[in-house]
Design a protein that fits this description.
Chain lengths: ~300, ~290, ~425
C-alpha cells in the first residue's frame, strides 16, 4: 500500500510540473460546483459537531464561579477569567496528577511494548506447539467484559494490599495493551523478509541482537503505533484507576478530574480548566501521529 | 527456515503470556468462584458458597431479559450509526479537495478526547435550561427532558456514544478505501457505470475485509461499553437506561453486592463467548494470520 | 541456538516488567509516605505522627477554617501533623471503603451519617466506646450521640447538626416567605414567568430535595424491624405535590438537577429554592438578598456531620494523637468556628448555647428546621431506598407514572432491590 501511495504522489507532482495547476484541479474532475459545495457543507457541519463539545468545556473554563451557567452561547465569555486555571494548578493536586499520569502511562507503555515485541517476534518467526492457541487466546482477551475482570481484580487487589499502589495498575495496563500490540507487530514482522536475520545468524548474532539491531529499527513505525496506543490507553483509563487509587496524591488525571465533580455541587469552572489541560496535549499528540495510527489499523485490511 | 532452539519461542512469548494469566486468567477463575458466593455488604469479610442462587435469581427476574434486549438494541443502533457515519465521512474524505487534511484531522477529535471528559461534557450539554442542547431545542420550540425522562436519557447516552465511535470507523474505512486501486473506478467509468453502481459493485465488496472485522470488534466494545452510561447516570441510572455491563457496576460499586455482580459478569461473558466463537472461526479462515 | 542467547532476551523483557514494578514500588512508597497511608503505618517513639483527615465540606468556604484549626492544633502538639484531604461525598465513601478494607486509608473521616451503617457492616469504622476519651464525649450533647448509634454501638461523633433542607427565598422578589403549601404555590405562580423566572426551583433528580414533604405528610420509610412502609398515602401526597408543581401549577422548570436549580436562583431567576445551609455561602457570593424559612408543611431529614475513625489503627501513639485531635475539633472554640462557616448548629454543649448560635438570624432559621426534622434511618438499605426513590420520582416527573401509582411501584422495586443485593443467607 505504501508504495502505491508514493506512486500516486509522484504522478500528482509530475502533473503539476506538466502544466500550471488551475483552480479546478484541486477537486475531483467530474464534480460539479454544487457537489463541491455540498461536500464542504456536510463536512463543516460534521466538524462543528465534532469539536463543539471541546469548545463547550473551554467556554465554561473561562467563566468566573458566579456565572458558570448562562444561556449565552458565545464561546469567549464576556467576563473572561483565567482564575479557574490558577485555582486548579495551585489549590488542587492537578500538577501531581499530571506527573503521576505521565509516569504511569510511560512505564506501562514501555514495558508493554517490550513484552509485545519479543512475543510478536516469536509468533512471526517460529513454528511451535501452542502458537495458534495462544494467539487465539490473545484475541479472546479482547472479548472479555471489563467488569468480569474488574470485580475480582478489585477484590484481589484488596486482599494482596495493592490498593493505593501502582503495581497492580501497571500489570493491568500492560496486559490490556499487549494483545493489540502483539497482533499489530506480528503483522508487521510478517511483511519483513527474514533474509537479513539469516545472514546475521550466520555471522553469529543471537536472538537478542537480532531483535534490537535488525527487527526494531526496521519496524519502528509499527512499534510507534503500539506505543502510542498503549500510552493513550493508560493515559485515559478511568475505571480501574478509580477503584485502586484512593489517595489524592497518588491519583492519575482521570480519577482526579472526575473526583472534582460531585452530585450536589460541582465547581464546573475548575473541572473544565483541568479537562482542557488534560485533553488538549493528548489531542495534539494523537492527531499529529494519526498517520502512523491509521497505517497500523489498516494493516489487516490491506493484505490481499 | 533456519534452525532454532525448540524452547526459544516459549521463552520469548512467556512474559506476555504470564502477564495475561495474572491479569486475565486468575481473575477469571476467581470471578467465576465469586459468582457462586453471597458476598455483599453483610458478608464481605466472610462470604459463603451459595451454589447457583445468584444465577437462579437473575434468570427468574424479567429485568434480565429486558436488559438483554436493551443491550442488543444499544449495540446494534450504535454500531450501525458508527459504520454508516464513518462510511459517509470516509467517502467524502476520499475525494480530492483543498483543506482535506484539516478536515480529516479535525474529524478525529472525538477519538482523541479522553472518554470520561467527553461523556461529562455531553451530559452537561443535555442539562436542562443551561445545556447547549436545551438552549438550542428551546429556540426551536422543542421540549425534551433529557435527564429526567429515562427513555431520553438512554437516547442521550446513545448520541454520546455514536459521537465517540464514528471517527474510529471513519479512519478504518478511509484506510480501506485508499487501498482500492483507482483503475477499477476508471474501468467502471469507461463501461458507463453510474456512481452508485460503482459503489455497489466495487467499493462495498472491496471494503468487506476491512469493515467486517472492525464492525465485530466495535460491536464487542459497544456491548461492553460501560463508561458512557456509568458516568452519564452517576452510576445510579434508571432501569430504562441500564445495559448489562452498567448493571454489573451498579450492583458491585453502588450496592456492594459482589456475588450477584460476579454472576451478571459471567452471564455477559458467556453471551459474548458464543458470539465470538463465530468471530474466531471467521478469523481462522484468514488462515495466514495464525501462521 | 545457545542457551545464553535466549536467556538474555528473557532477561531484558522481564527486566522491563520488574523495572516497572520496582519503580512503582519506590514511587508508591515515596508518594504515600507523605500522604494518607497513616492507618497502616506503625510509629516509633519520638517520630512525628502524621494523621490523615478526610473531609467533604464545601471547599470554597470550609477549607480555610479547617486549615486554621489544623494549624492551631499542630502548634499546640509539636509531635503531630495533620493532613486534610478534600473529596466529594460519593468518592469519599467509595475511597474510604476500598482503602480501609485493604488495611490502609485515612485515619479520620468527616462525612454524612448515612455512612455509619455501611461502614459498620463492612467493618470499616471503629467502635469508639472505650477508645475515645470520655472527656470528649462529655463535652457534647448526649442526645446527638445517642441519635447516631448503630445497633447500640457508637461508631461516630456528631460534631455539627444542620444537614437539613430549608426554604431559601430571594427577598427582592418575595417579601414574606410562605407558611403553608397553598400559599407557596400561590406566591410561586405569581412569580413565575417561564423561562425567564420561576417561582420555585429544586433539584428534581435527587429525591432528597423532595423528601421533606413525604415525611411532612406523615411518611415513614421503615418500621421498627426494617420492614418497608413507603407504600403509603403520605407518599402519594408527596408525589402528587411535585407532580402538580410541574404539570398543574407550572411553578418549576421542566427539569433540572442541583446545578440548574442553584444557577437559576443565583442568577436571580428563581424566587425560592429548596436547599440546605451548604448553599448559603454561594448565595452570599452571588450577592443575592436572601432569607431562610422552614419549609411549609414539611419535616426534613436533619442530620449531623459525623467523625469516624479507621479501624485498622492498632498503634497506641497514633490512637493517642487521634484522641487529641478529636478533642481539639470538638472544643467550644473550634466547634463554633466550624458552625459559623457552614451555618450549622454545634453539638458541643457550651458552643450550642453561645450567643452567636442563639441569636444569629440564619442559625436560628437552621435551628428551627433542625428542630422540626428527624435523622435519616440508620440502615444500610437506605441506599436501595434512595436509588428506587430516584427512579420513581423521575417516572412521576416525566409523566410516565401517575402519582397515585408511584408508591406501590416504589415499594415493589425497593423490596426487590434489597432482596437481590443484600440477602443475608
Amino acid at each position: 500500500m505504501d508504495s502505491k501511495v508514493i506512486v500516486n504522489k509522484q504522478t500528482v507532482i509530475n502533473n503539476k510540473k506538466a502544466y500550471k495547476p488551475k483552480f479546478r484541479d484541486h477537486f475531483e474532475k467530474k464534480d460539479s460546483a454544487a457537489k463541491i459545495i455540498a461536500i464542504y457543507v456536510i463536512l463543516t457541519i460534521a466538524l462543528i459537531i465534532n469539536i463543539y463539545p471541546i469548545l463547550d468545556i473551554l467556554k465554561i473554563s473561562l467563566r468566573p464561579y458566579s456565572s458558570l451557567f448562562s444561556t449565552d452561547l458565545s464561546i469567549i465569555p464576556k467576563n473572561l477569567t483565567f482564575k479557574n486555571y490558577i485555582t486548579i494548578l495551585t489549590e488542587r493536586a492537578f500538577a501531581k496528577w499530571m506527573i503521576n499520569s505521565i509516569i504511569v502511562a510511560t512505564i506501562s507503555a514501555v514495558a508493554g511494548v517490550t513484552v509485545a515485541v519479543t512475543a510478536a517476534y516469536a509468533y512471526s518467526r517460529y513454528k511451535f506447539k501452542g502458537k495458534k492457541m495462544t494467539l487465539t487466546a490473545f484475541l479472546l482477551t479482547q472479548i472479555f467484559p471489563a467488569p468480569m475482570l474488574l470485580l475480582p481484580t478489585y477484590i484481589m487487589f484488596q486482599k494482596f494490599n495493592l490498593i493505593d499502589s501502582y503495581v497492580g495498575i501497571f500489570i493491568t495496563y500492560i496486559a490490556t495493551s499487549v494483545p493489540f500490540s502483539v497482533w499489530v507487530l506480528k503483522g508487521y514482522f510478517d511483511t519483513i523478509s527474514a533474509s537479513m536475520e539469516e545472514s546475521a545468524i550466520i555471522d553469529g548474532a543471537n536472538t537478542f541482537q537480532i531483535i534490537t539491531k535488525i527487527v526494531i529499527p526496521l519496524t519502528l513505525p509499527a512499534i510507534g503505533v503500539t506505543f502510542l496506543n498503549a500510552f493513550m490507553a493508560a493515559w485515559n483509563e478511568y475505571v480501574i484507576a478509580r477503584i485502586v487509587l484512593t489517595d489524592d496524591l497518588m491519583k492519575t488525571l482521570p480519577v482526579g478530574l472526575v473526583g472534582l465533580t460531585g452530585s450536589f455541587r460541582t465547581d464546573w469552572g475548575i473541572y473544565s480548566a483541568g479537562a482542557i489541560m488534560t485533553a488538549i496535549p493528548v489531542m495534539i499528540v494523537f492527531m499529529s501521529l494519526s498517520k502512523f495510527l491509521i497505517n497500523g489499523l489498516t494493516l489487516g485490511g490491506v493484505k490481499e | 527456515m533456519w534452525s532454532k532452539s525448540k524452547t526459544e519461542p516459549y521463552i520469548l512469548t512467556s512474559p506476555a503470556i504470564l502477564v495475561l494469566i495474572v491479569v486475565v486468567g486468575f481473575p477469571l477463575v476467581y470471578g467465576i468462584y465469586l459468582s457462586f458466593t453471597n458476598m455483599n455488604v453483610y458478608s464481605f469479610r466472610d462470604p459463603k458458597l451459595i451454589g447457583l442462587d445468584n444465577y437462579i435469581k437473575i434468570f427468574a427476574d424479567p429485568i434480565f431479559y429486558s436488559t438483554l434486549l436493551r443491550t442488543v438494541i444499544w449495540t446494534v443502533v450504535n454500531v450501525f450509526c458508527h459504520v454508516l457515519g464513518g462510511l459517509c465521512l470516509a467517502m467524502l474524505l476520499n475525494r480530492k479537495f483543498p483543506f482535506k487534511n484539516f478536515y480529516r484531522v479535525m474529524l478525529m477529535v472525538p477519538w482523541a478526547v479522553p472518554q470520561y471528559i467527553a461523556v461529562i461534557t455531553w451530559k452537561n450539554m443535555f442539562r436542562g435550561t443551561y445545556g447547549t442542547i436545551s438552549i438550542l431545542q428551546s429556540q426551536l420550540g422543542v421540549n425534551i427532558e433529557w435527564l429526567i425522562n429515562p427513555a431520553y436519557t438512554f437516547i442521550a447516552c446513545m448520541i454520546t456514544n455514536i459521537w465517540l465511535g464514528i471517527p474510529f470507523m471513519m479512519m478504518v474505512i478511509l484506510g480501506g478505501l485508499q487501498s482500492i486501486p483507482g483503475e477499477l473506478y476508471e474501468a467502471a467509468d469507461i463501461d458507463g457505470a453510474s456512481g452508485f453502481q460503482a459503489f455497489r459493485h466495487i467499493t462495498l465488496p472491496l471494503l468487506k475485509s476491512t469493515v467486517i472485522p472492525a464492525t465485530i470488534i466495535g460491536g464487542i466494545w459497544t456491548f461492553n461499553m460501560v463508561n458512557v452510561i456509568f458516568i452519564f447516570t452517576d452510576n445510579s441510572g434508571q432501569e430504562q437506561t441500564q445495559i448489562l455491563v452498567s448493571r454489573v457496576y451498579k450492583d458491585a460499586f453502588n450496592f456492594f453486592a459482589y456475588g450477584r455482580a460476579a454472576a451478571w459478569s459471567v452471564i455477559i461473558f458467556l453471551i459474548l463467548a458464543v458470539f465470538s466463537v463465530g468471530f474466531i472461526k471467521m478469523m481462522m479462515k484468514e488462515k495466514e494470520a495464525f501462521e | 541456538m545457545k542457551r545464553k542467547n535466549w536467556l538474555s532476551v528473557l532477561a531484558i523483557s522481564s527486566l522491563a516488567v520488574t523495572m516497572a514494578l520496582g519503580a512503582v514500588g519506590c514511587n508508591g512508597g515515596g508518594a504515600a509516605g507523605a500522604s494518607s497511608q497513616g492507618a497502616g503505618a506503625s510509629t516509633k517513639k519520638g517520630d512525628v505522627i502524621e494523621l490523615v483527615f478526610s473531609e467533604q465540606d464545601d471547599p470554597q468556604s470550609a477549607d480555610p477554617t479547617w486549615a486554621e484549626i489544623i494549624a492551631a492544633f499542630e502548634a499546640e502538639n509539636p509531635g503531630i501533623k495533620v493532613k486534610s484531604e478534600h473529596k466529594e461525598t460519593e468518592g469519599q465513601r467509595t475511597d474510604w471503603n476500598n482503602s480501609v478494607l485493604a488495611g490502609k486509608g485515612p485515619d479520620i473521616i468527616s462525612s454524612p451519617p448515612d455512612n455509619i451503617p455501611l461502614f459498620a457492616e463492612a467493618q470499616t469504622a471503629m467502635e469508639l466506646t472505650g477508645v475515645i476519651d470520655e472527656s470528649t464525649f462529655a463535652m457534647l450533647d448526649s442526645k446527638a450521640i445517642e441519635n447516631y448509634k448503630y445497633k447500640g454501638k457508637v461508631y461516630g461523633i456528631p460534631y455539627k447538626v444542620g444537614n437539613c433542607l430549608v426554604l431559601v427565598y430571594n427577598k427582592d422578589l418575595i417579601a414574606e416567605p410562605p407558611t403553608t403549601l397553598d400559599e407557596l404555590v400561590q406566591k410561586a405562580k405569581e412569580l413565575t414567568n417561564a423561562p425567564n423566572q420561576y417561582g420555585l426551583v429544586y433539584d428534581m433528580v435527587e429525591p432528597y430535595f423532595a423528601s421533606p414533604f413525604f415525611l411532612g405528610s406523615g411518611g415513614q420509610i421503615f418500621d421498627d424491624n426494617g420492614g418497608l412502609l413507603v407504600n403509603s398515602d403520605a407518599a402519594k401526597k408527596a408525589f402528587q405535590l411535585i407532580y402538580d408543581w410541574k404539570f398543574t401549577d407550572k411553578i418549576t422548570p421542566a427539569e433540572g438537577n442541583s446545578d440548574v436549580a442553584n444557577a437559576l436562583f443565583l442568577e436571580g431567576k428563581a424566587a425560592m429554592i429548596i436547599n440546605g445551609p451548604w448553599f448559603f455561602n454561594q448565595a452570599k457570593d452571588a450577592n443575592i438578598n436572601y432569607g431562610i424559612a422552614a419549609l411549609p408543611n414539611a419535616m426534613p431529614f436533619a442530620d449531623a456531620k459525623i467523625l469516624m475513625v479507621n479501624p485498622n489503627i492498632k498503634d497506641e501513639a497514633r490512637l493517642a494523637a487521634i484522641n487529641k485531635f478529636l478533642a481539639f475539633i470538638n472544643n467550644t472554640e473550634n466547634q463554633l468556628k466550624l458552625a459559623k462557616v457552614s451555618t450549622e448548629i454545634p453539638t458541643n454543649l457550651e458552643a450550642k448555647n453561645d450567643p452567636y448560635v442563639t441569636e444569629d438570624e440564619e442559625l436560628k432559621g437552621v435551628a428551627a428546621a433542625v428542630a422540626s426534622g428527624v435523622p435519616q434511618p440508620a440502615r444500610p438499605e437506605m441506599r436501595q431506598v434512595w436509588d428506587t426513590w430516584r427512579t420513581v420520582q423521575a417516572r412521576v416527573l416525566s409523566g410516565e407514572v401517575a402519582p397515585a401509582d408511584a408508591p406501590a411501584i416504589w415499594e415493589a422495586e425497593c423490596k426487590k432491590q434489597i432482596e437481590a443485593t443484600m440477602s443475608q443467607q
